[in-house]
Amino acid sequence: MNATPIATRMSRRRWLAAALLSVVLAACAPLPPGAAGTDPLPSWNAGPAKQRIIDFVRAVSTEGSKDYVAPAERVAVFDNDGTLWTEYPMYTQMLFVFDRIKALAPQHPQWQQQEPFKSALAGDLRGALAGGEQAIAQLVLAAQSGMSTEAFEGQVRRWIGQAQDPRFKRPYETLSYQPMHEVLWYLRASGFTTYIVSGGSQAFMRAFADRVYGIPPERVIGTRQQLEFQVRGRNAELLLLPKVDFVNDGDNKPVAIDAGVGRRPIAAFGNSDGDVPMLQYTTSGPGLRLGMLVHHDDAQREYAYDRASAIGRLSQGLDLYKTWGWTLISMKNDWKTVFDPLP
Amino acid sequence: MNATPIATRMSRRRWLAAALLSVVLAACAPLPPGAAGTDPLPSWNAGPAKQRIIDFVRAVSTEGSKDYVAPAERVAVFDNDGTLWTEYPMYTQMLFVFDRIKALAPQHPQWQQQEPFKSALAGDLRGALAGGEQAIAQLVLAAQSGMSTEAFEGQVRRWIGQAQDPRFKRPYETLSYQPMHEVLWYLRASGFTTYIVSGGSQAFMRAFADRVYGIPPERVIGTRQQLEFQVRGRNAELLLLPKVDFVNDGDNKPVAIDAGVGRRPIAAFGNSDGDVPMLQYTTSGPGLRLGMLVHHDDAQREYAYDRASAIGRLSQGLDLYKTWGWTLISMKNDWKTVFDPLP
Fold first, then answer.
1. Which CATH class is domain A6-86+175-226+245-334?
2. Rounded distance, CA B102 to CA B124, Å?
3. Residue A44 carries which DSSP code?
4. Looking at the domain covering B6-86+176-234+244-334, what would its CATH class be?
């Protein structure tokens, strides 16, 4: 849990390189107009999205600025799926769940005849999810129950170290977005505390969020299953039960932020309609606020989807963003690179 | 929220004074045998409780020690009522609730004839609580609903700045225990993160925990009411509803620690049977662990109660503490002072 996060290490290296380069350039000759000094977001193209982030961070972190915010109140919240890493054509957690269902199938012969398990075992992922949220819940709860929270995180860690994305031919955790790593790093370097507030299972995300995003378990807020406290002799554990306790999406996201943070964030990043309430909560507090939505409009380098998609639908967000003063991030135009180059 | 905590400031001053004194003594003459070097817990009498805390902190924070624990995993959890401040003869939060009920009574004429409100309005606190947990919940929910979480915290802050304890003739927040302030300060100075995990309302405790204990809102875990996310025009708020969402006591304390911390603590301090599961969870992890129970045995300086008390009953804890390797803190024998002198 305490190793330096891979991705942060990578973005820090780049970030330092950019900073050093600008010092060297400054020492050698007057900078050409338009050449950035220290560019905190080197994977972003110049444009309104990049500018908005930089202006916001400078305004709230410059002492004496009329928009100055004390460090303890500099809280930024991030959705995970589709905002920090790829969620399309299927949430990564569901791919873990499908693999677990296959591994558990011999103990559950009835699954061969019973949906959504039958389709899942036949490799028909779309078919398995035809039953909507109820089917998803059935699969997730069957795959993620009957063990301690600590044993479960170990399972996720082993899986995520091995599984590969078929299109990009790389481990899932390297399908996180380099430009967003830079935002996380830039915010933390500017005194912010960064949280994940996402619909994924809290225990699933905690297994990699520290290493991949530099976000420790206590700042990962997600969907929760019921837990049972169990004491046997001198040993006490928390067991994951096959029941949903809290779905961290939509109106529940601000509620979860109150429970786990207890301060209204001043910056929020999302990508789907499930993030709209979190952005509304964040950006209606007093003072300068930042709300941003990643718009998946890049079929070539990643995927293009919004209003009509079952995964990561962005429709209400597109209707509301102007009124609320949020900024769309165009993956196609605003991001110089999407994924970090593999080491 | 960001001012230096009063109590921490006081304990820090003492702590620095003790440290400086030891340096001066060391410079002047050889220390007499038994004279402490830097005493991190000056309000504690020498004895097994004090020694256990110091030995534990040194073992887990000394690099190269076989019991060394990385700073990120140095998590310590504290119950609040009866562990960090006085809870007897009535939880401070209930005194706030009674005052709110009185203030709200003109809008609720039916309360004059209806228990538990009738007794509460007549000043008969014991009578008001005769209905047990259900009566407590009725009063709390009536007093703490229909406003935003932020407005509620403002109310608590105003109340706690004015209300006085009738026996000790001092504000309630100064009825926190000086020896426990020193433990909080000593742990944080040794790289620990300290959390409150208490049965009090989360929103109530957050209103003063930062100032009084140096524990910021994101590290205060408590009982929660249901919240409603409400958007009006360009404004979004969380409203406190008159429904209990989560009672943070007993078996629920480890569950809440998983939700809000995501790491198993290595040290836990409590005082009642409602803290036993939290101590079991904490002290059954691998490596060195610390479990401690404050035993209220000091009727003269505070109160004496344990097995037979309705408030803060300690019975199962007295049966189990030896088997589980926990240490009792005798308020009478282990604490040199109980409350910090008023400024």
1. alpha beta
2. 12
3. B
4. alpha beta
CA B284 to CA B288: how far, in whole Å? 9
When pLDDT is averaged across residues B251-267 and rounded to a whole number, the result is: 98
Task: Enter the ipTM.
Answer: 0.89
Of B1, B238, B284, the CB nearest to A255: B238
Nearest-CA distance from B324 to chain A in Å?
7
d(CA B49, CA A179): 51
The DSSP result for B257-316, as a single string, is HHHHT-S--SEEEE-SGGGHHHHHHHHTSSS--EEEEEE-B-TTTS-B--TT-SSS--SH
Cβ B218–A1 below 8 Å, yes or no? no
Three-state DSSP class for A322? helix
**Residues in chain A within 8 Å Cβ distance of B193:** 218
User: Six-digit token pair at B43?
Assistant: 């309000």
The answer to whether the beta carbons of residues A240 and A227 sit under 8 Å apart is: yes
Mean pLDDT across A49-71:
97
List of residues 6+ apart from B227 with CB closer than 8 A? A254, A255, A258, B149, B238, B239, B240, B241, B245
Please give the Cα distance from A279 to A289 (Å, whole number).
10
Q: How far apart are CA B239 and CA B244, in angstroms?
A: 13
User: What are B207's two structure tokens?
Assistant: 């209103």
Which chain A residues contact residue B4 at CB under 8 A? none
What is the share, in percent, of chain A residues with pLDDT greater than 70? 89
Other CB atoms within a 10 A radius of the CB of residue A59 amount to 16
Q: Which of these, A318, A4, A7, lies nearest to A178 by C-alpha position? A: A7
CA distance A265 to A270: 13
- Helices within chain A (DSSP H only): 6-28, 48-61, 92-104, 117-121, 125-128, 132-143, 149-162, 178-189, 202-213, 252-260, 276-283, 316-324, 331-334
Percent of chain A residues past pLDDT 90, beyond the cut: 84
Interface of B with A in 116-145 (CB under 8 A): none
A231 class by beta-carbon count within 10 Å (0-12 exposed, 13-18 middle, 19+ buried): middle
Residue ranges covered by each domain of chain A:
6-86+175-226+245-334, 92-165
In the structure, what pLDDT confidence band is assigned to residue A185 with cuts at 50, 70 and 90?
very high
Task: Find residues 290-329 of chain A whose CB sits inside 8 Å of chain B.
Answer: 323-324
Beta carbons within 8 Å of A168's beta carbon, 6+ residues apart: A175, A339
Interface check A148 vs B, CB under 8 A: no
Token pair belonging to A246: 């809290």
How do residues A61-118 score in pLDDT, each as one tens digit? Answer: 999 999 999 999 999 999 999 999 999 999 999 999 999 999 999 999 999 999 999 9
- The confidence score (pLDDT) of residue A8 equals 44
The pLDDT tens digits for B118-133 are 999 999 988 998 888 8
- DSSP, res A234: T
